[in-house]
Amino acid sequence: MPNSALQLILERAKEDEHQASLALNNARNERDNYLIQLQQIEQYRLDYCKQLSSRGQAGLTASNYNHLQKFLTQLDETLAKQRMAGAQFDEQVSACSEYWQEIRKKRRSIEWLLEKKQTERQQMLDKQEQKMMDEFSTLQFARRHLR
Q1: 33-89 pLDDT, tens per residue?
Q2: Those residues with Cβ within 8 angstroms of residue 30's Cβ, 6 or more apart along the chain or in another chain
Q3: Which residues, other chains included, contact 99 with Cβ-Cβ below 8 Å and sequence gap of 6+?
Q4: Please, what is the angle between helix 3-58 and helix 62-146, to 10°?
Q5: Three-state secondary structure along the chain?
Q6: Alpha-carbon distance 18 to 6, whole Å?
Q7: Is 60 helix (H, G, I), strand (E, B) or coil?
Q8: What is the biggest distance separating any 2 CA atoms in the chain, rounded to whole angstroms?
Q9: Any idea what DSSP says for residue 115?
Q10: Angle in degrees, CA 72, 76, 77, rounded to 5
Q11: Is there a smaller number of Cβ atoms within 10 Å at the N or the C end of the chain?
């Protein structure tokens, strides 16, 4: 395969690696945003529990207590759903990371192959040059002895 074709493959691999890196960063950002949102809901629930406790000490009607308790149950359900969604964010980050590493390995392999071909080409050129120098030396030696 000519070097120019390998260069094109390498450029494509670099672009694929860049896109994989962007996807990984995006997945990490989404997970971080999820964690912030989860923390905010947990804090809101904690604040609400404190408020419920304060109101309870001041005295609540059964109707108000039931209403506040239902809202707290809804918050707990929301938190449970959010926590279950967290696994999906972690899986997405893991999948993106594995894909990025795979693409990175591929790019490095192509670079290694290009370097190997360049080294082989240079060795071939060095041999050709040495052969020409040997032939030149042989011709000069022959000319000197003919004179």
Answers
A1: 999 999 998 999 898 888 878 877 777 777 888 888 898 899 899 899 888 888 899
A2: 89, 92
A3: 20, 23, 24
A4: 160
A5: CCHHHHHHHHHHHHHHHHHHHHHHHHHHHHHHHHHHHHHHHHHHHHHHHHHHHHHHHHCCCHHHHHHHHHHHHHHHHHHHHHHHHHHHHHHHHHHHHHHHHHHHHHHHHHHHHHHHHHHHHHHHHHHHHHHHHHHHHHHHHHHHHHC
A6: 18
A7: coil
A8: 127
A9: H
A10: 120
A11: C
Q: Which residue has the tokens 């109707």?
A: 63
Residue of 19, 1, 16 whose CA lies nearest to 107: 16
CB 72 within 8 A of CB 52: yes
CB neighbourhood size of 96 (10 A): 19
* Whole-number Å distance between alpha carbons of 72 and 42: 11
Q: Alpha-carbon distance 66 to 117, whole Å?
A: 77
Q: What's the Rg (C-alpha) of the chain? A: 35
Structure tokens at 47: 């604040």
For the stretch 8-24, pLDDT in tens is: 999 999 999 999 999 99
Taking the C-alpha atoms of residue 122 and residue 124, their distance in angstroms, rounded to an integer, is: 5
Q: What are the backbone dihedrals phi and psi of residue 59, each rounded to the nearest 5 degrees, phi first?
A: 105, 125
